[in-house]
User: Which sequence fits this backbone?
């Protein structure tokens, strides 16, 4: 089991979690509960252009960047319960040697082709540029800052040659074309094999994965570069290749193998050899990725493995679509995201709440949206009101009536038998869905188990029946406790933290997936632990804080991206002279009744007093302007409002890029009526 290696140029956000890491962790935990031998491999992708861009922005070295973010990402995953067996990095010495040896084997066997081509070069910076380092005008929508590989405004896939007036995205320098030599993997040679392997042998893959692969194959594959002109990465292990490194999409997936080697070499007694996992027909390889990585994991990396000849190929690649945030695209560069490390700090102890909501909204077949309102509603209405409510009732009643000891089960009623029959089927349904990578539906089935329990205990009302038929209550509580124990198993892959707390309350030391559906998990006479609330409500203030944070980010981005308005048409000096701009002292200022935007000023203009009405009430308290000296146009034709108020001029103000209004005032006091020239 592998999950996409996140770039170590920033923290992990909820889009990464929903697309890759939560579904991968659910599946791994399920396999472990089944008793399968499974290795969950992850790591940080620490080479490539995004790292160098971040380093330049922060004025540090690429190694400084990856050291910092690798630590943040690894700790975030640990705290969030992503249960990697190994989480390493592509700057490790083991990976550098392994990737270089992998390249060298293919090079020595003539599996690459050398191609000389003209690429964009920054003469001032003295470097060739990768696609992501190039910007220019989009040829399709004419957005001014499209990247060399994609326009983020219209979504078009581009090449640098298509950009209008391309320039260095970091320095702003103009670019020229210069010849350079690189090694390419001739994908077209593997096309017949890929068509057979994917289109004929893997029709069970998700439609989005199968469809994207078919589209690429139908378009005809072309050679793909495996080296780049960069000074950050794994040096190409070939004489005469100075200044060139392995292309990050050649280097990174090899990290799955090198990280496995690192783990197995350190603990062979527990994990065996790395070859047992990667070069044995008894192994099954599954990649969890986002849709932007489908081509690399289904076409490029398998072709690399095929060219090498010694490796197994992926059996499935259950890629997810993208998760949006409050209706907008998540953007790392614009800081518009819910960052995992910040979430863990700001909502401590609520890992399972986020895991639950991300799985419930998993973008398995199409892009989906995360909203804080939905997060609050699902936590409060499902985790608290359904799952948590049932568990709390069952355990608290056991403590109250039987001192926390599981009671004897008496004669079953038809309702009891129906309830037991319903939840005995859950294992089969959840298991079938998990095996098909349908995690959203599988979690829904697990929650249905809690709904069965909630309805059962509510309908049976043991708190009332205890007064007339205490023997009956023993059976109701016994069944409720069996269902509670089943919930602890059913939710273990999805909600590991709350499942562990629930098992502690049940004194349930051992559990297996095969136990799910059994009706005797807690024997009569067993002493349970101390009950406590499994979940607590998400308050409005918590949601408001998160929404305010996003709003602040949106405003900051708008201010950063805003540009001055174009200069208006040229006028003559005589035109300017027609404006009589003067200094006036504000004597009075008040809001205009029933007109929220307006303030009424009484101005001393040096000759007399005049009334001026201005639409700036949103930005000023009236009393704050009294006594100020402001600039106003004295010879503007009067304007009458519907309420009969007449404005005898216009107060000058400046409008910032974000729409904020600032009244223009005089720095040093002058006499009222002084003219501006």
Assistant:
């Amino acid at each position: 089991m592998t999950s996409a290696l996140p770039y170590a140029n920033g923290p992990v956000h909820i889009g990464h979690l929903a697309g890759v890491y939560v579904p991968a962790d659910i599946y791994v935990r399920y396999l472990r509960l089944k008793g399968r031998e499974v290795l969950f491999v992850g790591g940080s992708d620490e080479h490539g252009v995004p790292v160098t861009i971040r380093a330049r922005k922060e004025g540090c070295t690429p190694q400084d960047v990856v050291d910092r973010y690798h630590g943040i990402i690894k700790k975030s995953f640990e705290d969030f319960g992503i249960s990697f067996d190994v989480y390493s990095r592509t700057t490790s010495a083991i990976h550098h040697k392994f990737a270089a040896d992998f390249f060298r084997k293919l090079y020595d066997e003539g599996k690459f082709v050398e191609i000389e081509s003209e690429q964009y070069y920054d003469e001032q910076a003295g470097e060739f540029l990768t696609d992501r380092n190039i910007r220019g005008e989009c040829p399709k929508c004419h957005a001014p800052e499209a990247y060399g590989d994609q326009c983020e405004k219209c979504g078009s896939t581009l090449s640098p040659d298509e950009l209008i007036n391309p320039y260095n995205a970091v320095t702003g320098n103009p670019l020229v074309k210069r010849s350079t030599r690189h090694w390419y993997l001739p994908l077209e040679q593997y096309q017949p094999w890929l068509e057979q392997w994917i289109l004929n042998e893997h029709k069970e893959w998700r439609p989005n994965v199968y469809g994207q692969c078919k589209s690429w194959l139908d378009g005809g594959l072309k050679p793909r570069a495996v080296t780049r002109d960069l000074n950050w990465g794994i040096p190409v292990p070939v004489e005469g290749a100075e200044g060139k490194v392995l292309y990050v999409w050649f280097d990174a997936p090899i990290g799955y193998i090198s990280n496995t080697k690192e783990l197995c070499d350190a603990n062979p007694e527990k994990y065996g050899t790395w070859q047992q996992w990667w070069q044995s027909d008894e192994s099954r390889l599954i990649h969890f990725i986002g849709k932007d990585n489908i081509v690399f994991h289904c076409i490029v990396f398998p072709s690399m493995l095929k060219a090498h000849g010694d490796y197994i190929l992926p059996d499935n690649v259950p890629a997810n679509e993208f998760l949006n945030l409050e209706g907008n695209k998540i953007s790392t560069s614009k800081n518009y995201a819910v960052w995992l490390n910040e979430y863990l700090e700001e909502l401590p102890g609520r890992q399972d709440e986020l895991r639950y909501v991300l799985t419930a909204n998993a973008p398995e077949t199409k892009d989906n949206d995360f909203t804080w309102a939905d997060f609050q509603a699902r936590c409060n209405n499902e985790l608290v009101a359904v799952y948590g409510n049932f568990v709390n009732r069952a355990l608290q009643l056991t403590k109250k009536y039987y001192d926390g000891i599981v009671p004897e089960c008496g004669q079953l009623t038809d309702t009891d038998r129906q309830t037991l029959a319903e939840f005995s089927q859950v294992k089969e349904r959840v298991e079938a869905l998990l095996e098909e990578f349908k995690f959203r539906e599988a979690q829904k089935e697990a929650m249905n188990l809690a709904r069965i329990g909630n309805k059962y205990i509510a309908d049976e009302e043991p708190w009332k029946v205890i007064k007339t038929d205490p023997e009956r209550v023993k059976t109701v509580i016994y069944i409720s406790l069996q269902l509670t124990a089943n919930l602890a198993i059913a939710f273990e892959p999805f909600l590991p933290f709350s499942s562990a707390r629930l098992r502690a309350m049940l004194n349930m030391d051992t559990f297996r997936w095969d136990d799910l559906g059994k009706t005797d998990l807690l024997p009569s006479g067993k002493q349970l632990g101390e009950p406590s609330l499994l979940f607590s409500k998400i308050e409005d203030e918590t949601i408001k804080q998160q929404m305010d944070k996003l709003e602040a980010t949106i405003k900051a981005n708008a201010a950063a991206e805003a540009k001055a308005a174009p200069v208006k048409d040229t006028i003559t000096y005589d035109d300017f002279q027609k404006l009589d701009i003067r200094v006036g002292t504000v004597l009075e200022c008040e809001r205009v009744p029933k007109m929220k935007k307006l303030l009424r000023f009484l101005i001393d203009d040096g000759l007399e007093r005049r009334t001026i009405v201005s639409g700036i009430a949103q930005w000023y308290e009236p009393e704050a302007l009294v006594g100020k000296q402001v600039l106003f146009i004295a010879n503007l034709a009067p304007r009458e409002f519907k309420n009969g108020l007449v404005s005898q001029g216009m107060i000058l103000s400046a409008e910032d890029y974000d729409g904020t209004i600032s009244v223009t005032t005089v720095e040093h006091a002058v006499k009222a009526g002084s003219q501006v020239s």
